[in-house]
Design brief:
With about 150 residues, the protein is α/β, with parallel strands linked by helices. The chain contains 7 helices and 5 strands, in the order βαβαααβαβααβ. The relative contact order is 0.22.
């Protein structure tokens, strides 16, 4: 039994590393059917604003596109989530990914965050930072990084 975790947040963006993180989170959840798994994706509008995407499409078109993308993203993992007896949820948020993941975990009493590592070089990470690095710094609970 893996009794000291009751609610696991898994950061999911459709990448190979997020698939590995999801698989790891579900393996942990298999230890006890009472463990909840929350698959969370975060849409980051900073890049939309920076590159002037609003000049190309309307806010409504962007929202519709994001809704379709979210449904497609979570459609990829529906089978995996349905295959476990645990309570699961899929959540899409908007904002700074690291901040939103840490806040969601805290606000929803998640006691473990599982996410993939982007594998940035130390020089790139120094300048760009990474979502996983920032989540580790901001989270109130343990963060497990899947590689």
């Amino acid at each position: 039994m893996f009794g000291f975790y009751s609610r696991i947040l898994v950061a999911y963006d459709g990448s190979e590393l997020s698939d590995k993180a999801l698989d790891l989170a579900l393996k942990l959840a298999e230890q006890d059917s009472r463990i909840e798994v929350h698959a969370v994706t975060v849409w980051d509008d900073r890049y939309v604003q920076t590159f002037g995407y609003y000049d190309i499409v309307s806010v409504e078109e962007l929202a519709e596109s994001r809704q379709r993308s979210t449904e497609e993203l979570f459609g990829k993992i529906k089978g995996k989530l349905d295959a476990v007896p645990n309570k699961t949820a899929t959540i899409a948020l908007e904002g700074n990914p690291a901040k939103m993941l840490a806040e969601y975990a805290k606000d929803n009493d998640c006691d473990l965050i599982v996410m993939g590592s982007r594998g940035l070089s130390s020089m790139k990470e120094l300048f760009l930072g990474s979502v996983s690095h920032n989540v580790v710094q901001q989270a109130h609970c343990p963060v497990l990084i899947a590689k």
